Amino acid sequence: MMAAVWPNLNVVEGSLPTAISKLRQVLGDQGRLVITAVHGIGYRIGVPVTHRAAPPPPRLSFALRAGETVPGRPQWVLDRLLNGVAERDVWLACHEKTGECRVFKFATTAERLKALRREAAISRLLHAAPGERADFVRVNKWNFETRPYFIESPYGGQKGFGANSAQAMAMMGEVAFCLIVAGNAAEAAPLIDAINPKALSELGAGPDLPAQLDVMRADIALSAHDIPRARALLQHPAQVFDRPDADPYVRRWVARLLASTKA
Questions:
Q1: d(CA 230, CA 257)
Q2: In the predicted structure, residue 71 carries a pLDDT above the cut 70
Q3: Residues 25-34: pLDDT tens digits?
Q4: Cα-only R_g, the chain
Q5: Where are any strands of DSSP class E within the chain?
Q6: Per-residue exposure over 13-41, b if at least 16 CB sit within 10 Å of its own CB, e if not
Q7: How far apart are the first and last CA of the chain?
Q8: Domain range for residue 86?
Q9: Which tens digits make up the pLDDT trace of 85-94?
Q10: Structurally, how many domains does the chain consist of?
Q11: 73 and 150 share one domain
Q12: Whether residue 231 sits in one domain with residue 219
């Protein structure tokens, strides 16, 4: 049950009773008739269940136009739309006095708001580490309290970091590794899937990169208790990193994962 409700997360046994208690409060189930406990097994629904299709996620509707000020940031004037699709609006805005330009990413759906929160959190994580991160755009400010929700970042121009897909992929791999180490494997999976090893050859990535990505995928599979998939993903890395000149850290990582698949 815990694997189904909290996939890829480490939770304690007390998490389930706490969640059931909160759910009963929401349902007004003081008599414990809606959610009943089955001794030695778990919980079950004690009333008839009906199904209906969920409505589409609501759009956090608002209208933005060039020449207007950013809501909540009156000194920043919207210049032009950099990327506008159904679920996200990315605008360039410039300061009315200094002329400095920044990028504002707005949330138009609840799912997009979640993504912006994640981006702000990752930015704080990377910039809290020692040393400057010139390869990663810092999130300067954010507004998650009132609509329209947004994050604000420096603008690097048309030749800035955002235009270099190879650098972006390298950064995604680094962030994915940090997420796996921190125990957030589910968040790392889509980043790894977006990486194209061939494109990273532009940055001089070595031939072992595909195997390194498989190691991370295997770690994610183990976090989801999918031992057969983890074992299959480790077949190639086990050969690649068995060489004497292989990265010793990755070699130990592969050995630990292989041991886990046999436990």
A1: 8
A2: yes
A3: 888 888 888 8
A4: 23
A5: 35-38, 42-45, 69-70, 73-84, 88-95, 101-107, 141-143, 150-154
A6: eeebeeebeeebeeeebeeeeebeeeeee
A7: 21
A8: 69-163
A9: 544 588 999 9
A10: 3
A11: yes
A12: yes
